[in-house]
Design a protein that fits this description.
The longest helix has 21 residues. Strands 10, 11, 12, 13, 16, 20, 23 and 26 form an 8-stranded mixed beta sheet that branches. A 4-stranded antiparallel beta sheet has the order 3-4-2-7. The N terminus is likely disordered. The two termini are 31 Å apart. Helix 1 packs antiparallel against helix 12 and helix 11 packs parallel to helix 12. It has 16 helices and 30 strands. GO terms for molecular function: metal ion binding; serine-type endopeptidase activity; tripeptidyl-peptidase activity.
């Protein structure tokens, strides 16, 4: 099954299927009582977009290095018109509401983008319309939802024209906005739950080598990353931080004074979404890590934009706010109602966007899947315009998140690493995202240690001394695996099938989805990164670190292409898996990502579900991309 067929087909199954047995209430929510039948709700029908079945092929046309249209990215107007729901879709849904359901014409509203239809009806009318039972649900934080977790039904002739109906089965993750892919996993060599490890003596750590303290110089040496921007303001790169995750300018200066003096006094350019404030009280860990690494690697000649996403009172997912701010066609018209979202297509778009958060488990579940499908489609549409989305693959091994959630036979998630099926994470599982796993220099591998992966020397400048490494061995860190929502795209078939045929453990077929989109795509160092946080130097990391590191590599490649009069790379995945990029990765063959009472997947030659294709060799990768038109 192709990716695009899965995108369309899943929505139809969800919307037309009649539940044979009661489904459990979504994790984290409690069903309180039947909803008041006389209360009005805005029932919203997200209409099926045109050409979604062609999205993958349209992206390949501008992203496959062998295509004559490589790099000829679309304008936002072209994207909007190509994917606008057809007149047949609009007429079918309106006709059903008007004639079959008896909704008065003045109560049926279509938003200005033509992709959402809304009717204001009572709970009783909604139940009759959808053949569903509505309840009031709550979570431990006091949030309340009205919905019908056991499902709803649409006529067959209508269902194919509707992606999802809200509010119905989608509740979001209870008590959660967005969680960083951070340092609370024991797999990263320190105690689970520890947010950071303070460095008591920075000088001693600087002398100890890159196996115990990774600095900017370590990263430059590991990835052959000698970069000075040459394209000026034409090149753009951004990083996303969500509500409650903030930074302190004084931490940036503390870090830059030691490792990047030309950046002292510099801060990223703020792009506030839904009132996001990077200086409010909150958690310092993720933004400090992202911003210091990206500004440190890219230097003062390359501006970094900070997408600081606030939280609306009604938005269902934090990614909705980001995507709506980038593309107004994703955002409902405010007159009709937009779940509290007000920034609709009014924010600048950067060539590269780095995301170090996980937003949802990748489960084939009607309470989750339709929204993930819609968000992934939107990411693909934005990628058509030349944006590269980079995201952390996560730190839970083959389980979901640092809480190590696995899927039990009854269809529920349980934390604490129980025996069960593997669970991926979104957005890394979206095939239009470049998912980044994490590696680390093996303990004690700081001087004159060789591996079978090569014989070249790497020169690392650690503070005031030089340490020669003979291709230092790397061991992999979680997370990775196979999506339960998205089919494996053609561009990674060969690499992934090689792993499944020759190296994959012989787990039962129920443990993971062998036909799913496989990730991560690439990897970079994830532990132990030296950063400044809360006025002191600490060790931090996770795929939270590897994503912004690889995003910086992509930004530097874009800089070279733009300076040569070429386009940014845009959707980069087909090129990464192409023969043209062979030899531009440092293959990682040691390590695994255990979880769910298993050893997970082992790293192996070539692509694997732990380190992807490997870590980047920037100079070789840049040279390859400069050969493309």
């Amino acid at each position: 099954m192709t990716l695009t067929h899965l995108l369309v087909g899943f929505a139809t199954v969800v919307l037309t299927g009649v539940t044979a047995a009661p489904r459990p209430v979504p994790a984290g929510w409690t069903r309180h009582h039947r909803a008041d039948p006389d209360v009005f709700i805005p029932l919203k029908f997200t209409l099926a977009q045109s050409n979604v079945d062609r999205l993958e092929s349209l992206l390949l046309d501008v992203s496959d290095p062998q295509s004559p249209n490589y790099g000829k990215h679309w304008t936002h107007v072209q994207v909007k018109e190509a994917f606008r729901p057809s007149s047949e879709t609009v007429d079918t849904v309106r006709g059903w509401l008007l004639h079959d359901a008896g909704i008065p014409v003045d109560q049926i509203k279509l938003n200005v983008n033509g992709d959402m239809m809304q009717v204001n009806v009572t709970i009783a009318e909604a139940e009759a319309l959808l053949k569903a039972e509505y309840y009031v649900y709550g979570d431990d934080d006091g949030a309340a939802r009205v919905g019908c977790h056991e499902g709803y039904t649409l006529p067959d002739h209508v269902a194919k024209h509707v992606d999802l109906v809200w509010p119905t089965t989608h509740f979001g993750r209870a008590g959660q906005f967005a969680r960083r892919s951070g340092t609370s996993s024991a797999y990263f060599g320190h105690e689970a739950g520890a947010p950071k490890i303070p460095i008591k003596n920075l000088a001693s750590f600087a002398e100890s080598g890159c196996d115990t303290a990774v600095t900017l110089d370590c990263l430059r040496a590991l990835y052959n990353f000698d970069f000075t921007p040459v394209s000026g303001s034409k090149n753009t790169v951004g990083v996303v931080e969500f509500e409650g995750n903030v930074y302190m300018p004084s931490d940036l200066d503390l870090f830059f004074e030691t490792y990047r003096p030309d950046q002292v006094g510099h801060t990223p350019t703020l792009i506030s979404i839904e009132g996001g404030n990077p200086f409010a009280a909150g958690n310092l860990g993720e933004p400090s890590l992202d911003i210091e690494l990206m500004m440190g690697l890219l230097g003062s000649g390359q501006n970094l934009s900070l997408y600081q996403v606030g939280e609306t009172s009604e938005a269902q997912e934090p990614a909705d706010e980001l995507l709506a701010a980038l593309d107004g066609a994703y955002c409902s018209d405010p007159v009709v109602g937009s779940e509290g979202i007000t920034d609709c297509g009014d924010k600048p778009r950067t060539n590269v966007i780095s995301i170090s958060y996980h937003l949802s488990p990748d489960l084939n579940d009607p309470t989750i899947s339709p929204e993930l499908q819609r968000m992934c489609t939107e990411i693909g549409k934005l990628s058509l315009t030349g944006i590269t989305f980079v995201a952390s693959s996560g730190d839970g091994g083959v389980a979901y998140s640092q809480a190590a959630e696995c899927l039990l036979p009854d269809g529920t998630l349980e934390a604490g690493n129980p025996a069960g099926s593997f669970v991926g994470q979104f957005p890394a599982s979206c095939p239009f995202i470049t998912a980044v796993g994490a590696t680390s220099v093996a303990p004690g591998a700081s001087v004159n240690i060789s591996t079978s992966t090569g014989l070249f020397f790497i020169l690392i400048i650690a503070k005031c001394r030089q340490v020669k490494l003979k291709n230092p061995p790397l061991f992999s860190l979680p997370e990775g695996g196979f999506s339960n929502n998205f089919a494996r795209p053609d561009w990674q078939q060969g690499a992934v099938q090689n792993y499944l045929d020759n190296f994959a453990p012989k787990y039962a077929s129920s443990i993971f989805n062998r036909s799913g989109r496989a990730y991560p795509d690439v990897a970079a160092n994830g532990w132990p990164l030296v950063i400044a946080q809360g006025g002191e130097f600490t060790l931090s990391g996770g795929t939270s670190a590897s994503a912004p590191i690889f995003a910086s590599v992509v930004a530097a490649i874009n800089d070279a292409r733009i300076a040569a009069g070429k386009s940014p790379v845009g959707f980069i995945n087909p090129a990464l898996y192409s023969p043209a990029l062979l030899g531009t990765f440092n293959d990682v063959t040691v390590g695994s990502n255990p979880g769910c009472q298993t050893q997970g997947f082992p790293a192996a030659p070539g692509w694997d579900p732990v380190s992807g294709l490997g870590t980047p060799n920037f100079e070789e990768m840049k040279a390859a991309f400069l050969e493309f038109q």
